[in-house]
Amino acid sequence: MAPLVPTLHVSALQSELNTLPHGKPRSPPLDLSQAPRKELVQYRCNVRAKDGGGPPKQGQRAVIVCDPVVRFYRVCQDGLMVETTAWEGWKDKHVGAELGER
After folding, report:
1. pLDDT per residue over 31-60, tens digit each?
2. If DSSP codes are grouped into helix, strand and coil, which group holds residue 97?
3. Residue 48 contacts residue 62 (beta carbons within 8 Å)
4. DSSP of 12-63
5. Would you say residue 55 lies in a domain?
6. What contacts 10, CB < 8 A, 6 or more positions away?
7. Are the beta carbons of 31 and 17 closer than 8 angstroms?
8. 47 within some domain
9. Which GO terms describe its cellular component (predicted)?
């Protein structure tokens, strides 16, 4: 089984990324906004009744419906890959709010 990966709040992602596991700061620090963004599309598939939206009942015809799930990643200069799906939207709102205040 793979080791557990901690879940971070989007506002803490940049600072946590620049702190090494033993507590020392990363040198040089990583800037996620400067790292190239990659996109991965996965699909969430569900079995549904052909004539309705819910799960099929015994003997009822069914179809498989797949919906795309888009995830974003940033690839840092040292090869570190970080999922930034939630951070991308948060960053845009955060930067937009700062620009609007000026």
Report:
1. 988 999 999 999 999 998 887 778 888 888
2. helix
3. yes
4. GHHHHHTB-TTSPBPSSPP-GGGSPEEEEEEEEEEEEETTSSSPPPTT--EE
5. yes
6. 86, 87, 90, 91
7. no
8. yes
9. mitochondrial inner membrane peptidase complex
**25: in domain:** no
Measured CA to CA, the distance from residue 48 to residue 98 in angstroms comes to: 45
Picking from 39, 32, 35, 36, the residue whose alpha carbon sits closest to that of residue 72 is: 39
Is the pLDDT at 98 greater than 80? The verdict is no
Distance of CA 43 to the CA centre of its chain: 14
| Global confidence as pTM | 0.70
Q: Number of folded domains in the chain?
A: 1
Residue 15 forms part of a structural domain: no
For the beta sheet containing 37-49, the strands, ordered from the edge strand earlier in sequence to the opposite edge, are 37-49, 62-75, 81-83
Query: In 10 A of CB 89, how many CB atoms?
Result: 12
Q: Is the peptide bond before 56 cis (omega within 30 degrees of 0)?
A: no
- Domain interval for residue 56: 31-101
Single out the residue of 6, 7, 30, 10 nearest to residue 18, CA to CA. Answer: 30
